[in-house]
Write a structure and sequence with these properties.
Blueprint (H helix, E strand, L loop, with lengths): L4 H10 L2 H14 L5 H11 L5 H18 L10 H8 L4 H10 L6 H13 L3 H12 L7 H7 L5 H12 L4 H8 L7 H13 L6 H8 L4 H14 L4 H11 L4 H19 L8
Helix pairs in contact: 1-2, 2-4, 3-4, 5-6, 5-7, 6-8, 7-8, 8-10, 10-12, 12-14, 13-14, 14-16, 15-16
Length: 276
């Protein structure tokens, strides 16, 4: 592993995929919280890396940086005028705060600003939140813009768009979502499988089994996410088999163990007695 923070940053910026993954794992497990500010920028960029393995580990590292450094999000804005001001700010992190604050207020000026921002926004983190914010208004006029977001180059945006559109119960939209089941982004795949299962769109078990057997931690994590969200009757069987075969990533292994424990408690809970 890197001998210093400077070397760690070099590995993150210019190292091989293997070196960058090891650096991201080191950040998650061993990094001094005081160094969080220095590494968060490059880790954030790696969360949009072309490599799904690097994206997966970068997103975990970002979560860990936030947890270990005690970062707290600013309180949401309360007034429409303040939210509109945030949405117009030049800094993407400020615009993101505006998007997240907008859920508390519904107004035509906010809806118009959110849709305009979704058309023009360049930052993928902001776009990923915008699609859910715009969809929450459930306006037909925004559907073409949201469907277009299914083709966004950033996987997080596509995944969030699938999740947002799946709440609209539109048969045409559901058909379009089903077409994305083979999307190269693992988060999109898990979002599509979750949506299809909830819509009664066929047996997802074969795809979940394939993802668990893939040997790719990001696909395995997505499969586990779907099982945790839906908890079909065969979840415990698949997860116990996955655990028995061995899970190298310790975070994923811990998550699987915790889900199995929850499922086991549900199985062992005695049925409620009927009325006397």
């Amino acid at each position: 592993m890197a001998d210093s923070l400077d070397q760690l940053l070099v590995d993150l910026e210019t190292g091989t995929e293997e070196k960058r993954i090891k650096a991201l794992q080191w950040i998650g497990y061993q990094m001094d919280p005081a160094d969080g500010a220095r590494v968060s920028g490059v880790v954030r960029r790696l969360a949009s890396d072309p490599s799904p393995a690097i994206r997966y580990h970068a997103r975990l590292a970002l979560d860990e940086i936030e947890r270990r450094t005690g970062v707290t999000r600013p309180a949401p804005a309360q007034q429409e005028s303040e939210i509109l001001e945030l949405l117009a700010h030049e800094a993407p992190e400020v615009r993101l705060r505006g998007v997240l604050s907008g859920y508390a207020i519904r107004s035509e000026p906010l809806f118009e600003k959110l849709t305009q921002l979704l058309r023009d926004e360049r930052d993928p983190w902001v776009r990923a939140s915008l699609v859910k914010a715009v969809a929450s208004y459930r306006r037909k006029v925004s559907l073409p813009l949201l469907v277009k977001a299914l083709e966004d180059p950033d996987g997080r945006v596509r995944a969030n768009t699938v999740e947002a559109l799946a709440t609209l119960d539109n048969p045409v939209i559901s058909s379009r979502i089903a077409e994305m089941v083979d999307d190269p982004e693992h988060r999109v795949q898990s979002a599509v499988l979750t949506a299809l299962s909830r819509d009664g769109g066929g047996d997802i078990r074969p795809r979940i089994e394939t993802m668990l057997a893939s040997g790719r931690v990001w696909l395995q994590a997505s499969a586990v996410y779907v099982l945790q969200e839906l908890m079909p009757p065969w979840s415990q069987e698949l997860l116990e088999g996955f655990l028995k075969r061995g899970i190298e990533d310790r975070r994923l292994r811990t998550r699987v163990v915790n889900i199995i424990e929850v499922l086991s408690r549900r199985e062992s809970k005695p049925p409620e007695s009927g009325a006397a």
